[in-house]
Design the sequence.
């Protein structure tokens, strides 16, 4: 099998995604909307299959997990209580030269005595930046090809201009402790906070009208005062698109627990859209502003969270690996203490080796009792659990009321879809019809994930073969198997097309079918063909899907 070159794997997957109908750029005919994607005819099936598999393993196959489907817009107090309104923000900085906007907390941090070379895209840009820096800061950096030299870190707060490799700076400037990630520029704006939640307004309120009359009535206020006043008007009818699905499970904890008489430990699962006004959108669908999540909040007795964290970390890892070709590309990474979210006492990331290296696929967090306690405090609801069988550890009396701790496996559907596309992409060298080497692109998607399970192909469009094929397809439909009738182009081209779509089985109806009632079934991965009875085709496919 030809090796996948990882640097081009991403481009190949993006290109195949468009050609075969997995993922399209949103609003493409209008030039595309940055960071928004549409899932095409095969993509929507793949996405649903991933979600169905998750639901099956997390909800249908377990007695201790129930599901919900909550609204995307929730009461604004939810986001106050969860801390999202206060803390769901990133420190943002602009490079004064390139205008690159980035997150300060993720930027490279050169240390005292380090040089601060600015790496431009090309010589023309280097020349433009030299001029811009000279105009703005009155220093002339040395240009060597596309790199600009002369700046060095002096100490934590100061950087200097050292012309001609001299020891002493001729000019000094405040140093922020980091540089812009793309160019390495230390010429930066102040940090600004930026809320990642999408805000909208609810109700028949004319916010712009209210703002206009407020501004007219308060012409003597300065900019800061005006902004505070306008913010108050906007807040009155503000609502937010949820940035995670998790909060609904905390807010509906009591309703779910009581309506289904659940006993701790138990979980509430949800899949659905989340929205984040991400500063950096990157790597195709890896990080986008609108995405889908599959999250489960598992409520446990205080003190048992460590064992449940390990349990869910392992279950989730098994799930990802079971549906992949190459399990070695997944690994765990325990969060360092300073990386933990404010609500967590421990967390693992399940990471995948993407073409740019290992990066997050799912987080499995021990969220403590933070969320339930916060919602209880803000709403006044008694979000606790009473265990009649247990003794209260403090009083020693029978019956223990406590706020459950929570373990949360939180995965991205769309990020998972990218992982399975990357994992599935294979190129193989195979002989073509003339016996010459040719490249076969095959998407080795797990049969349970494959958008189309079986393609039914009449060898020719005559002699009654299409009729037999169509009848077979309708049998698959009745059995709930997504089959596709396909008569366009030569049989070789059809096989290749379905290899690229990831269709695990192709059934061909040929002349022999009319004679002895047999058809061929071709396996996508081995390309082996077997003759089976046409009447057994449904059973054969069903069996293979169940056993896959
Ligand atoms: N409730 C916890 C939570 O939302 P998170 O680590 O921020 O945790 C969980 O998100 C998962 O959601 C991530 O591991 C990732 O798979 C996915 N995810 C988060 N932000 C995303 C984005 N902007 N685009 C695509 N997927 C994203």
Sequence:
């Amino acid at each position: 099998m030809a090796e996948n070159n990882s640097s081009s794997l991403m481009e190949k997957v993006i290109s195949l995604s468009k050609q075969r109908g997995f993922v399209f750029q949103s609003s493409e005919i209008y030039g595309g909307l940055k960071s928004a994607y549409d899932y095409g005819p095969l993509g929507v099936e793949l996405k649903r299959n991933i979600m169905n598999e998750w639901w099956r393993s997390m909800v249908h196959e377990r007695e201790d997990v129930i599901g919900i489907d909550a609204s995307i817009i929730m009461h604004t107090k939810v986001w106050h209580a969860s801390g999202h309104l206060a803390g769901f923000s990133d420190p943002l900085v602009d490079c004064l030269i390139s205008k690159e906007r980035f997150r300060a907390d993720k930027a490279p941090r050169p240390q005292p005595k380090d040089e601060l070379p600015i790496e431009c895209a090309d010589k023309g840009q280097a020349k433009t930046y030299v001029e811009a820096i000279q105009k703005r800061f009155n220093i002339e950096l040395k240009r060597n090809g596309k790199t600009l030299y002369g700046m060095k870190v002096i100490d934590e707060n100061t950087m200097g201009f050292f012309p001609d490799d001299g020891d002493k700076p001729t000019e000094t400037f405040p140093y922020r402790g980091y540089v812009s990630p793309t160019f390495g520029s230390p010429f930066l704006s102040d940090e600004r906070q930026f809320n990642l939640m999408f805000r909208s307004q609810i109700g028949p309120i004319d916010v712009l009208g209210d703002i206009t009359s407020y501004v007219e009535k308060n012409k003597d206020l300065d900019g800061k005062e005006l902004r505070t006043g306008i913010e108050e008007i906007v807040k009155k009818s503000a609502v937010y698109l949820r940035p995670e699905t998790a909060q609904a499970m905390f807010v509906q904890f009591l309703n779910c627990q009581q309506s289904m008489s659940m006993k701790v430990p138990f979980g509430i699962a949800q899949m659905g859209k989340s929205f984040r006004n991400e500063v950096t959108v990157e790597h195709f669908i890896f990080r986008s502003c609108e995405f889908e999540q599959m999250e489960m909040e598992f409520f446990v007795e205080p003190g048992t969270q460590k064992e449940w964290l390990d349990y869910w970390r392992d279950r989730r890892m098994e799930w990802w690996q079971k549906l992949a070709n190459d399990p070695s590309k997944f690994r765990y990474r325990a969060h360092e203490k300073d990386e933990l979210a404010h609500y967590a006492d421990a967390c693992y990331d399940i990471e995948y080796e993407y073409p740019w290296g290992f990066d997050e696929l799912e987080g499995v967090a021990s969220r403590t009792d933070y969320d339930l306690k916060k919602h209880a405090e803000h709403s006044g609801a008694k979000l606790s659990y009473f265990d009649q069988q247990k003794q209260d550890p403090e009083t020693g009396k029978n019956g223990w009321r406590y706020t459950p701790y929570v373990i949360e496996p939180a995965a991205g559907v769309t990020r998972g879809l990218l992982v399975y596309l990357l994992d599935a992409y294979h190129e193989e060298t195979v002989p073509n019809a003339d016996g010459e080497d040719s490249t076969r692109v095959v998407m080795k998607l797990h049969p349970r994930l494959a958008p189309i399970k079986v393609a039914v192909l009449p060898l020719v469009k005559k002699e009654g073969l299409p009729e037999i094929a169509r009848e077979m397809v309708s049998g698959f439909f009745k059995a709930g198997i997504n089959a596709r009738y396909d008569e366009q182009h030569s049989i070789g081209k059809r096989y290749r097309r379905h290899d690229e779509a990831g269709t695990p089985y192709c059934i061909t109806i040929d002349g022999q079918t009319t004679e002895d009632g047999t058809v061929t079934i071709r396996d996508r991965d081995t390309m082996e063909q077997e003759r089976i009875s046409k009447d057994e085709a449904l059973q054969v496919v069903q069996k293979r899907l169940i056993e896959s």
